[in-house]
Task: structure prediction
Amino acid sequence: MAWLHTWFGLVLGYVLMICFFFGALSVFDREIDRWAIPESRFEAQPMPSFDAVLKPVFDKLRAHPDEMKEMAGRVIGELPHPDKLPLEALYAFTTHRDPLLVIGGDFTIPNKPKDASEDHLHVHGWGTIDPRTGAFLPEDRLKVGSSFFYPMHYSLHLQWLNLGYWIVGLAALAMLAALVSGVVMHRKIFREFFTFRPKKHTQRSALDLHNLTGVVALPFHFFFAFTGLVIFAGIYLPLSETMLKPLAKQHEVLQAKRTGLPHESAGIAAPMASVDAMVVEAKRRWAARDMAGEVGLLTITHLGDKNGYVSLFRAGSDQVALVGQGVHFKASTGEVIREDPVPNAVSSVNEFLTGLHLQHFRHWLLRWLYVLGGLAGCVCIATGFIFFVEKRKKQHAKAGGQASRVVDALAVTAVTGMVIATVVILVANRLLPTDLADKGGWERNAFWGAWVLAMAHAFWRGAPVAQARVNPAWREQCMALTGLALAAVIANWVTTGDHLVKTVFTETYWPVAGVDLSLLVTAALSWMAVRRLARREQVIARERSPTAGLHGGPTQVRTAGAKVSNG
Result:
């Protein structure tokens, strides 16, 4: 069990570190978006009027150029111009934390596919709009929280053959094994819940903190690893797209017949009734079921067709379970086709587990507990790395090996290097000109570039580890992180005028203030780490000094060193 725990944790711990850290940031991804996009610094908005605001917006929506380019290689003949592609289906999505509205749609492709097994060919278009005016946000505005940090924690931004999903899935599976083996190894689990000896040597303190953070958040860690695997089971076991594809298509048809929601378009044009009137009726029905709320998701299927229907789903931010209580209307007349029934026991469990993982609820204290749980996972993994190196580096130094140096450098990269890259993208977001072409691409490059530089620095400065000493990269990167975190706060102040006095006291706006305060806490913790690491390096240097015996002997030096280290 110890071997399994050690090597599963070491090999895949770097991936888990990314998952936990960016998962913790994703709890407040919308708030980070507001910090990164000053144009969105206004209060969250409900779903706007479809008839007055959204309908003209969807008239302007076009298929995305990347989608057109990809589809061109899959069909026979030349694709029509995007302006001539009819919109077949659309959606609009918002939450109680979103000032901006996410929209998208499917455009019908008239060309025949090269692969006869493909059907329902269409390309997608999407955009982000200001729901107050219907104005589109420029495409190069990177939503750092929801479009970069959030996908990072489950896909690593490795899209080729869904490689990132598979790596994260493997890491989650290994984590479940590491959690179980960790419990078996540490039989005195309740004693370790209350045991932390920070004044002991690094190896002992790191192990105590590793055990403590692992035990405190054990249910949290187990639950998120398990539900993450369940949510993406369709990728890991794509039976409906492979072996059971004909059966899955047959099920879609039967399901449409059972629910009364047409599976295919009729091919007969039909006008659209007032969607706003449908929204009023849906809200009335939700209120009658004692769950009044706003529309979170609006979809229209078979747009402009006799078989078209409108689906309205409740935002559901007042509960943990990810439920929509959908009400479906015939698009041409506005009559109710179906109101989703109360889910059965199995569906209720599924909705609760999914909602608990995706956390669309409004409960702010629970959100902060999610953040603390995610950061506890980061501490658990980081201290595991440190314990591994501290336990073996003297042995490896005597044998002339480099294994501890490599593990330590990778640990620096996965801990301080990752946080540096995270803060760098925020600094780049504020310092790059607003009108810079492909600004979001430059911000992504700044993130990856900073992380690569941090990795190179960790390996370059890692030689002392091979001599059983401390890698100065830890201290130096914490020092850089302190400066970068302060620079991000100052850059936000200078470029937008939104300093903490304004966002906390005069014109209270917690999404921006929260990010700034989190950066200041990061700077403070980093500076504390710099000072403690510097003292530790000084103590070790004195202990190894050839003249150490002339100043009271090894015992006195070790005693003095312990006092300095514990100070």
